[in-house]
Amino acid sequence: MIEPNFAKGDGLIPAIVQDAETKEILMLAYMNRQSWEMTLQTGKATYWSRSRQELWVKGETSGHFQLLKAVLIDCDNDSILLQVKQLGEAACHTGYKSCFYRKLEGDDFVIVGEKIFNPKEVYK
């Protein structure tokens, strides 16, 4: 089986996360070999948190899990695209549907995304 080349990124590869139905890009995260294997075994997107230096099952705290629908790998085997069913409708910890909720207009970024929940209520 072709596998991601974790050595190229010092043990981490970028994982682009896309809504399997709408094709909207939800977020970018990083995976190490352990999170990759857990994702394949459980069917729930699992990442490596660079800030906390630990495995992170998306939705473990918020309930907004990502269920794996398809996995694509790039031509260099050093990044992947996860197509997921986003539970809870929001992927971003700030409460927006997508982490890419701000768009450059002129010389500033403006909010263009939909806010789904209040993070203060979810992450108590």
Descriptive terms for the model:
Ubiquitin-like (UB roll), two-stranded antiparallel ribbon, four-stranded mixed beta sheet, mainly beta, 124 residues
Overview of the molecule:
This protein has a 4-stranded mixed beta sheet with strand order 2-1-6-5, with helices on one face. The longest helix is centred in the first third of the chain and has 10 residues, at 33-42. The chain contains 2 helices and 8 strands; from the N terminus they run ββαββββββα. The protein has helices at residues 33-42, 119-122; strands spanning 13-19, 25-31, 46-49, 54-57, 66-73, 80-86, 102-105, 108-111. By secondary structure, it is mostly beta strands. It has a single domain (6-116), classed as Roll (Ubiquitin-like (UB roll)). The radius of gyration is 15 Å and the shape is globular. It starts with 12 loop residues before the first strand and ends with a helix. 11% of the residues lie in helices and 36% in strands.
